[in-house]
Structure formats: structure tokens, C-alpha cells
From TrEMBL:
Pfam families: adh_short_C2. Residues 9-187 form the Ketoreductase domain. Belongs to the short-chain dehydrogenases/reductases (SDR) family. This is SDR family oxidoreductase. It comes from Sporichthya brevicatena. It comes from the Bacteria. CDD domains: SDR_c.
Length: 256
């Protein structure tokens, strides 16, 4: 198998009908792999499956990432269709609440943690049980630069993304040596999810980034493929920050 190849490999990616998850699926398929993708909207998912190459290469199953029955059916269908689950990407996430953390309705806080953390644990439990515990594999979780420190305005989401980094470290140790687990922490990437952050003034939004542009989904998709593939065989428990240099520490009195 060539470097970074996904020949003979199968991945499940949650929340992959568009955006970062779709870009990761595209990269895996481009390198010879097969993918199962999820999302809530069945039509959008069917269109994405077709774009990826259709049946035999991609499988789409609609459902909510925090629905354990849905997760189980995706894992079962992937084994039935492709016979294995080498890779898993916990990508689907929600951010239903903005503002100070103590003003967030408890139901919204619960939803964020249900999807972003408890959902991720459940998916990993299922892929581990169905395939990885006997055959090994690799996992990527989609954190965020908001998980690296305080994030005024999106604190609930940021805390969930920090928890995802801790979960990644914990599982990397618990599931070693046969399963690797790494996180990715992107800055703002141009997707529907983040549109509100740059729609009115993209140049202004990109100004604090040393590379002077926002991310695009393929910036993250290629990194997902790297962390899943054998190219990163000695990397586990790490968080790869991909943010155009946004979080590079500067000396006093300096601004990006
Ligand atoms: N874009 C950024 O700036 C940025 C930065 C840091 C981290 N991230 C993280 O990157 C990941 C992907 O975000 P994105 O920017 O690519 O968003 P996106 O373009 O809006 O895509 C989100 C995908 O997830 C699906 N989805 C949303 N909620 C879901 C749910 N509850 N259950 C199942 N599927 C769901 C969506 O399809 P449906 O709507 O049909 O369900 C869609 O396929 C998230 O974990 C996000 O936190 C994004």
C-alpha cells in the first residue's frame, strides 16, 4: 500500500454531507478508500454520496449524531456493505447557543454536550466493539481553536471542544497500541456552520490570521486523511491546530 493510501480501507464520518466532513470523505475516496457518511438531511446526503462516486464507494445514512440507535445502524450497515471499519471521524457538532455561558439555557448546554461529546463517545464505543478492538484502526475528533482556551461568545461550544481534546488524549492512551486517536482544531473555515462569523466582512474576519485568509474545507480534509493514514503511524493523542497561524503566540505588544 502506498504512502497515505486508503486502498482496502473503510471510514465512517459523521456530519459529512457538506463542509469539513465532506472534504475529508472526498480525500479518502481520492486515495482509494470507501466511506460511510451521515447527516440529518437525507436529500443532501444522497447528493453527497453521488458526488463521491455512488454506491460501492460511498454509503449515506441519515440521522442525528446524538441518536445511539442511528449510530448503531450506521455501524451495522457499514460492516454489511463494506465488511470493515478502519477509520472513524467524530465530525458532527452543534452550536445552538451564543453569549455568556451562565446565560445559556440548560437544555441548550445539554444538547451541545449530547452531540459533541456524549455522541462522540457512543460512536467510538460502537466502532471499537464492531471492528477496531480486534483489528485496530485510527480515529480523528473534530475539535476547534475554541477548545484551546476561553472563547467569549461561544463558551458552551468552546468547553465542549476542550472536552473533546481531553477525550482524545484519554482514548489515545486507553485504546493504544492498536488504535490511534487524534484531534484537529481548526480556526474559522468557510462553511455553512461558520458563515455567521465572516459573511458580512470576510476580509476583516481574515485580518487577524497571519496567512491572511480563512480556511477552506480541503485545508482540513487533507489533514484528516493524514491523521487517519499510516503516514501518521507514530502520532496519537495529539491535537493538530490548523488555523492560518491565528494562535501562534506573539510577544507583548504585538498583534497579528
Ligand atoms: N467551520 C469552522 O469554522 C469550524 C471551525 C472549527 C471546528 N469546526 C468543526 O468542524 C465540524 C464540521 O463543521 P463544518 O464547518 O464542516 O459544518 P457544516 O459545513 O455546516 O457541515 C456540518 C455537517 O454536519 C451535519 N450535521 C449537523 N448537525 C448534525 C447532527 N446533529 N447530527 C448529524 N449530522 C449533523 C450537516 O448536515 P445536516 O445539516 O443535514 O445534518 C453537515 O453535513 C464541526 O465539528 C465543527 O464544530 C468547524
Amino acid at each position: 500500500m502506498g504512502q497515505g493510501s486508503f486502498e482496502g480501507r473503510v471510514a465512517i464520518i459523521t456530519g459529512a454531507s457538506r463542509g469539513i466532513g465532506y472534504a475529508a470523505a472526498e480525500e479518502i475516496v481520492r486515495r482509494g478508500g470507501k466511506v460511510t457518511i451521515t447527516g440529518r438531511d437525507a436529500d443532501a446526503l444522497a447528493a453527497a454520496v453521488k458526488e463521491l462516486g455512488g454506491p460501492g464507494v460511498a454509503l449515506g445514512i441519515a440521522g442525528k449524531a446524538d441518536d445511539a440507535d442511528h449510530a448503531r445502524s450506521v455501524v451495522d450497515a457499514t460492516i454489511a456493505e463494506f465488511g470493515r471499519i478502519d477509520h472513524f471521524v467524530a465530525n458532527a457538532a452543534v452550536n445552538p447557543v451564543y453569549g455568556p455561558i451562565l446565560e445559556a439555557p440548560p437544555a441548550a448546554v445539554r444538547k451541545v454536550f449530547d452531540v459533541n461529546i456524549i455522541g462522540a463517545v457512543e460512536w467510538i464505543r460502537l466502532v471499537h466493539e464492531a471492528w477496531m478492538k480486534d483489528n485496530g484502526g485510527s480515529i480523528v475528533t473534530m475539535s476547534s481553536v475554541t477548545g484551546l482556551g476561553a472563547s467569549p461568545g461561544i463558551g458552551v461550544y468552546g468547553v465542549s471542544k476542550a472536552a473533546l481534546i481531553a477525550l482524545t488524549q484519554q482514548l489515545a492512551v486507553e485504546l493504544a497500541p492498536t488504535i490511534r486517536v487524534n484531534a484537529i482544531a481548526p480556526g474559522v473555515v468557510k462553511t455553512k456552520f461558520a458563515e455567521v462569523l465572516y459573511a458580512n466582512d470576510e476580509e476583516g474576519a481574515a485580518a487577524p490570521y497571519p496567512l491572511k485568509r480563512l480556511g477552506v474545507p480541503s485545508d482540513i480534509g487533507s489533514a484528516v486523511a493524514f491523521l487517519l493514514s499510516d503516514d501518521s503511524a507514530w502520532i496519537t493523542g495529539q491535537t493538530l491546530v490548523i488555523d492560518g497561524g491565528l494562535t501562534v503566540p506573539l510577544g507583548d505588544m504585538q498583534q497579528h
